[in-house]
Specification:
single chain, 799 residues, alpha+beta, OB fold (Dihydrolipoamide Acetyltransferase, E2P), Phenylalanyl-tRNA Synthetase, Chain B, domain 3, six-stranded mixed beta sheet, 38 strands, elongated, tRNA_bind_bactPheRS, protein biosynthesis, ATP-binding
């Protein structure tokens, strides 16, 4: 926002240092991005007096003038028809660079010397009149010949370019910034005059709001006998300094009040309106409407319109209609002042790519309690500057009256939050200066936020206000006090998750850190039918991140694709993070689950000497990692059960301990893998539920046992099994024998004979006694018993 310093001083009597003011505003959150001098180009333009004016001897439309500029009298050739003696005029001296880029030089025009230029309003960009030179003496008094035009006309020397954050809509006006300056410097704040003199004729106008959820307040005044003409110089100059081009007095007044008070207004030509009714209603789907810029807009049923008795006349809160604009011959003005739903205006403005000063403010929120004053202020200015007659009464409807926020505030809270001692009296005076009303209670205050501060909703918001006025830059950076050691403060679960990360990195996996947000299409691609459990993001940054992940695989697959794109096709990635599912039974309505997921793809060994080539990750690798994890974190004996049906794995193997399913693993389906550039289909994935595993981890107790004193004896057993017989079934039978000297069983080899639907499984059994060396016959007898038991209880045979 561009802030005119001269305009600001009409609200607060500030006379301090400009640079210091810019710094203080920046420190309270109103960043002054730049200090401009908008009229710097006029530094070599002065007030001159025409002392002589005669016809040019060699031209029928030029005049030879002698112009007094205080220090000397200059000969100037002028082509304006209205130049005459005794006039005070703006004179651009030799060397002046005009806004158009033209540079004034000493020259001869039709044989006569000219040492300067007498300028029009248009040439100086201080008005729209280009019909002749600007006769200053007709608009201004007490001008001094030779004085620089900037100081002579009271133009702004300094204009602040302030970056206003979205939460501070109250500062999108001179009044809003003035409130801040008044609070910072303890200065009085004065409002402009709005003393409207009504005529006896009553206003007969009806307001009908058909969509009250989109329009909270609508009010209008009718002003007759208006004379449309250029605005006075002081108003034009302030608008120009604020980046707004003057048009005519009535339109300029609505823009002036907009910048002054932050309330958008609109002026309709009453002659072009049908009936004595204004309606506020939603548009019809695909309805056409031509706005003030002459463009036809196609509307939707969600766009809000202002209508008379027959037709739409304005796009609410954004831009008026071409069919009701103020023109040079307008005399009756219907002045609108309203408050619209910010969401409604924002959606329409963005969809149509139609941003205006009005929509910019409506989108961020308007001070509803100030709106009646803004209407009176604009009516007063039209009455004063356009000789308008204001009819008696105001047409008004307010379906949603404004309700101020009342906040409980503990006066000791600023000290606790900010870490410095803040006196209660300072907090009280600060909040009062910012417009809050305070009622003190025993242990807390009841603070009523002002209507212009929509961002004050919670106690912490008030603490922030106290802090920024105190000066956040005054608070020294220091570490907080810690009453206990960091070790005592750490959560066991945090340490558990950290330990798993160290383990994963230690076995050669690389950590992948992904966003919690994924695209719904990514979850759909995995075949997950869990839409009713998904947590959707209300305002996602993009459609690729519109839902919280329900599985870690969605993010890991993108990491795999990124690696493949960079020609890294040996993948060993893991991620430890939370997944999210909708749950109405928890306070946050979202169930969070800590998961450990990892993917393997490509070559088992690095593809360089001395490692063997052609060996790729397979099921044994992913299962081996799970078993190693179980040993490292105290999991009981696990069971691996194959499930044929799974949305993205083929096959899928569930990891079970007792009645708990701790996770699953398997080969990702080839069609899904190809979507992420894995062409050979060799992509293995495992996923563990760390919240369940943590329960087992807490029960895990390390025990030490004595090293064996006597040697072990090993025997092999080979059996021929059906293909669908699981190794676990064989191990279960062996375990059931309950042999005291059997120490361990391991799978030595699995062989698949050609053209036979069987497999040969070789097991190695280790025997050891605690108190003696075992004899060969003793071991052979036990081993033979176990082998026969396997054959007896299972559908297997000896080769």
């Amino acid at each position: 926002m561009l802030l005119s310093l001269n305009w600001l001083k009409s609200f607060v009597p500030f006379d301090g240092d400009i640079e210091e003011l810019a710094h203080r505003l920046t420190m309270v959150g109103l960043e002054v991005e730049e200090i401009n001098s908008p009229f710097e180009y006029l530094k070599s333009v002065v007030v001159g007096k025409v002392v002589e004016c005669a016809p040019h001897p060699n031209s029928d439309h030029l005049s030879l003038c002698k112009v007094d500029i205080g220090s000397e009298v200059l000969p100037i050739v002028c082509g304006a028809p209205n130049v005459g003696e005794s006039q005070l005029v703006p004179v651009a001296l030799i060397g002046t660079k005009m806004p158009s880029g033209f540079k004034i030089k000493k020259a001869k025009l039709r044989g006569e010397l000219s040492c300067g230029m007498i300028c029009s309003q248009k040439e100086l960009e201080l008005g729209e009149d280009s019909s002749g030179i600007w006769v200053l003496s007709e608009e201004f008094s007490n001008l001094t010949v030779g004085e620089n035009l900037i100081s002579a006309l009271g133009l702004d020397e300094y204009v602040f370019d302030i970056g206003i954050t979205p939460n501070r809509a109250d500062c999108l006006s001179v009044l809003g910034i003035a409130r801040e300056v008044a609070a910072l410097y303890s200065l009085p704040l004065s409002l402009p005059s709005a003393n409207v003199q009504e005529i006896d004729t009553p206003l007969d106008y009806d307001i009908e709001i058909q969509s009250p959820e989109h329009c909270f307040l609508y009010q209008a005044r009718l002003i007759t006998d208006c004379k449309i003409k250029p605005s006075p110089a002081w108003m034009r100059f302030r608008l120009i300094a604020s980046g707004i081009n003057p048009i005519n007095n009535v339109v300029d007044i609505t823009n002036y009040v907009l910048m002054e008070l932050g309330q958008p207004l609109h002026a309709f030509d009453r002659r072009l309106l049908s009936g004595n009714k204004i309606r506020v209603a939603l548009a019809k789907d695909k309805e056409k409407f031509v706005t003030l810029d002459g463009k036809e807009r196609e509307l939707l049923a969600t766009d809000l319109l202002i209508l008379d008795s027959e037709k739409p006349v304005a796009l609410a809160g954004i831009m008026g209609g071409e069919n009701s604009e103020i023109k040079q011959d307008s005399s009756e003005v219907l002045l609108e002042c309203a408050v619209f739903n910010p969401v409604t205006i924002r959606k329409t403005a963005r969809r149509l790519s139609l941003t205006s000063e009005s929509s910019y403010r409506f989108e961020r929120g308007i001070d509803q309690l100030l709106s009646p004053f803004a209407l009176e202020r604009a009516a007063y200015l039209i009455q004063t500057l356009a000789s308008g007659k204001v009819l008696k009464g105001i047409a008004k409807k307010e379906p949603k009256p404004f309700v101020k926020a009342v906040i409980k505030f503990r006066p000791n809270k600023p000290s606790d939050i900010l870490g410095v001692e803040i006196e209660k009296d300072f907090s009280f005076k600060t909040l009062q200066k910012l417009g809050c009303k305070i009622r003190k209670e025993e242990s807390s205050w009841e603070v009523e936020a002002p209507s212009f501060r929509h961002d004050l909703q919670r106690e912490i918001d008030l603490v922030e206000e106290v802090g920024r006025i105190y000066g956040l830059d005054k608070i020294e950076a220091r570490l907080p006090k810690v009453s206990r050691t960091l070790k005592d403060e750490q959560d066991p679960k945090v340490l558990f998750l950290r330990k798993i990360k160290h383990w994963a990195k230690g076995i050669g996996l690389q950590e992948s850190i992904n966003y919690s947000f994924v695209g719904e299409k990514d979850l759909d691609l995995l075949g997950l039918e869990d839409k009713e459990k998904r947590v959707y993001v209300l305002n996602p940054l993009s459609e690729e991140q519109n839902v919280l992940r329900t599985t870690l695989l969605a993010g890991l697959l993108y990491a795999v694709k990124t690696n493949f794109t960079q020609n890294n096709k040996r993948i060993k990635l893991f991620e430890i993070a939370k997944t999210f599912t909708k749950d109405d039974n928890v306070e946050t309505l979202c169930q969070e689950n800590n998961r450990f997921g990892f993917v393997l793809s490509g070559s088992r060994y690095p593809e360089n000497w001395p490692f063997p080539k052609g060996e790729f990750f397979n099921y044994s690798d992913i299962k081996g990692l799970i078993e190693g994890f179980a040993l490292s974190f105290g999991l009981p004996e696990m069971e691996f059960i194959t499930r044929r049906e799974h949305p993205f794995l083929k096959p899928a193997v569930e990891i079970i301990v007792g009645d708990d399913i701790l996770g699953f693993m398997g080969l990702i389906k080839e069609d899904i893998a190809k979507q992420y550039d894995v062409k050979d289909g060799n992509l293995w994935y495992a996923d563990l539920d760390l919240d369940k595993i943590f329960g087992y981890y807490l029960k895990w107790t390390l025990r030490f046992k004595e090293l064996p004193k006597f040697p072990a004896s090993k025997r092999d057993i080979t059996v021929v099994c059906p293909l669908d017989l699981q190794i676990g079934s064989i191990l279960e039978v062996i375990k059931g024998v309950q042999c005291k000297i059997l120490e361990d069983v391991s799978v030595k080899d699995i062989y698949f004979p050609k053209d036979k639907a069987v497999k040969n499984v070789t097991l190695t059994l280790t025997y050891r006694a605690k108190d003696k060396t075992l004899k060969v016959k003793e071991v052979d007898k036990v081993n033979s018993n176990i082998a026969n038991t396997i054959v007896k209880k299972l559908n297997v045979s000896f080769p």
